[in-house]
Design a protein that fits this description.
The complex is a heterodimer of chains A (324) and B (87). Chain A is an alpha/beta fold and 324 residues long. In chain A, helix 14 packs antiparallel against helix 15. Chain A is 56% helix and 6% strand. Chain B has 87 residues and is of the alpha+beta class. Chain B is built from 3 helices and 3 strands; from the N terminus they run βββααα. In chain B, strands 1-2-3 form a 3-stranded antiparallel beta sheet. The chains are: A alpha/beta (324), B alpha+beta (87). At the A-B interface, helix 4 of A face strand 1 and strand 2 of B.
Amino acid sequence: MFEHVDRLLAAGSASTAMLRVHRVELLEARRRRAAGLELEPDLIADETRAAVNEMAVPGLLARVRAAYDGPLLLMKGPEVAVAYGASGLRSFGDLDILTDDAPAAQAALIAAGFQEVFDPEIYEEIHHLRPLWWPGLPLVVELHTRANWPATIPGPSTDELLTAAVPSRLGAPGITTLPPEHHTLVLAAHAWEHQPLGRLGNLVDVVVMLRRSDEADVDRLARRWGCTRLWRTTRRAVAAVVEGEGHSAAVALWARHLRAGRERTVFEWHVKDLLSPLWGLPARRVPGAIASEARRTQLSRSWLALRNARLPRSEYNRLTEATG
Amino acid sequence: MTELRLRADDLHWREIDGEVIALEARGSTYVAANGAGTLLWRALASGTTPDALADELVRVYGIDRRQAAADIEQFIAQLSEQGLLAA
């Protein structure tokens, strides 16, 4: 399943830090082991951390299940990791659980001994409540009020997703997940909302779930959820980058960093901001999104951005922070 | 002789790069075992005896049999104290 990704990783020279940014550090560890190559301590530490997190999942899910009676639908994270076909290939640090009444579930979990963590301001008015931690376990639980979805695309309702639920592949009693077709689109939309075609690992997630899906059903669902363009762009990027088949204009124009396993430069970041609406939003939303991005670009970008167009985005951010 | 075996419930473990990392899920505690510990852990996973464990240490590490038996006794006591062995 990962032959082409292996070739990309072998051809690249990404640091462990950059492999982590792309969420493919465990695939690189697997590739190096299979090739009989030495593993640096950082990658062994990543494997260990992933193993600990995987082992913590059943117990944590059992505690969540015992604390709340309503529906608990596990998305992403370990549910996607199991679709990779072997343990220790996909890292995760939380359990994303969609439920019917997230505030009630949050209260029930707190009453059962879970503790809220991290800055509360971060979680105001987003798609999930403040993360919950069970003392001693390495993962946090995030109770979702809805799937994370680009704001200008209708997407599915929480009710629709909960109604479509199927038993979790982890075998956790009373825990459900999405059918693969639904999950494929939720992964694609979540990744797009985070950063369109941003991480190689997000594309690998999509392909492993897609391989368990009826692709015609995914296409039909994408039409119903109003995300046909986003899905078509993601599908072509997955084919071009992860499967080594076909061509993706989006990858060629504004996501070349994926194949190189590197970070976007400042210039590529701006091109992505300007062009990605063309590839991802419903047609009627595109002119407004591009005009809005162009206005934002003109107002907020300075000569400093132009002078540093070839810098990796994170270096540029550090530079602007340092110079105030 | 009494058989020793790792507990089956709520004890998860993996081997990473030749070392065991385990999670005892009831108390949310972690255990890590180095090379020799990993050797013993594997044997305990399928069931063994203190004598067989000591023999294994002697065979692999070439240490004195009495020293091996003492090391095994200490290792078993630690696992037992942490509730990791089947009753």
